Amino acid sequence: MRTAHIRITAACFLSAIGVWWFAHDVMWSDIWMVSREAQFGWIALAATTLLAEFLIRAHRWRVLLRPLGHDVRLTDLWSATVIGAAVNTLVPLRAGELAKPMVAARRTGHKLSTLFATNVMERVFDLLGMVSILLMMVVALPGDPGNSELVANLHRYGSFVGIAAITALAVFFVLATRKLAARHIFENILRFAPPPVRPPFLNLFDGFVAGLGSAQNRTALIQAGLLSVAMWLNGAVAIWCLFKAFGFSLPFAAACFTGVAIALTVALPQAPGFIGVFHVAIEKTMVLWGIPDAESKSFALVFWGVSFVPVTLVGLIAMWREGLSMSDIKSVDAGDTTGPSQ
Questions:
Q1: Alpha-carbon distance 117 to 125, whole Å?
Q2: How far from the centroid of its chain's Cα atoms is residue 237's Cα?
Q3: Is it the case that residue 37 has pLDDT exceeding 90?
């Protein structure tokens, strides 16, 4: 509990710094003027496109679960996905990563540990999607970008993430295809742990590896990979729509790069709502592409709104229909691997 309090304090402190950094020199009259001139139609299209990402996520999750022997309804996984997104926005330390599999376990009867494992597989496929969008960025870069240093850094960054993604995929595939050998190694590692904690960790490991079963199914791998690319492309298209809303003459490569910047930003510990750090990251990304300060700050504020407000409202409605409250989610024991049925 003390560790959690320390992490929450650190996250709030980081967000507070971000808020100060973003707002200390803001000319709100200029921000308001820029925001008023933004085209609402493009903003609405961007918000709708970003909301569609969670339907793609739910479909990909369904594909990853299918090789485990149970065909899950898409509506069940979509509900769990938007609830997880809403909790991530409202509660610190990405608590939605716990709420999402908890809701899915209630609706599907799958073990909670298995659902956690497929969440890990989702992160691996997210790396694949990130690599694909970086490649699209390189392809979409203009022939004469006017900033050779920026282009060189983009190429270098894409290579680094590509190597990391390939390494992560290789590790997970080894775990899935060599379960007995992996379990034997894990048992040897647990010999250094106190005897009472060994059985729970072994149970968690077994459920974890079970969730990687889709790695043995070639069709599921291809489908999940294509959906990951589609999901990241969907995000870049939404950002490009916002560029149009603000009249930014930026290439599609800038939308791809901004999508990657967002993914890295929301992974940092921060206060509920991703306030502060998110805004600074987007503002600095826009400045990097030559957008003036007032326009960059206004874009960051609108971007935050379309990214989090619609899905949070939808997620809260889904949570209400599910009969859940924030206290229910906070009280869930992460060590419960049974997953209560609905």
A1: 13
A2: 17
A3: no
d(CA 206, CA 208): 5
> Residue 331 has what DSSP assignment?
T
pTM, two decimals, is 0.78
Tokens of residue 82, six digits: 């938007």
* Ordered DSSP codes for 125-158: HHHHHHHHHHHHHHHHS-SS-S-HHHHHHHHHHH
Cα 259 to Cα 106: distance, rounded to the nearest angstrom = 32
- Given a cut of 60, whether residue 143 has pLDDT beyond it is no
Token pair listed for 77: 């996984």
Which tokens go with 26?
Answer: 């803001």
For the chain, give every domain's residue range.
Answer: 27-330
Residue 66 near residue 220, CB atoms below 8 Å: yes
Asked if the model's pLDDT at residue 338 lies above 50, the reply is no
Specify the amino acid at residue 181: A
**Concatenated DSSP letters of 42-100:** HHHHHHHHHHHHHHHHHHHHHHHHGGGT----HHHHHHHHHHHHHHHHHSSTTTHHHHH
| Number of CB atoms found within 10 A of residue 19's CB | 16
Residues, the chain: 342
Helices (H), the chain: 2-23, 28-37, 40-65, 74-90, 96-108, 112-140, 148-177, 179-190, 198-210, 218-246, 252-266, 277-288, 293-322, 326-330
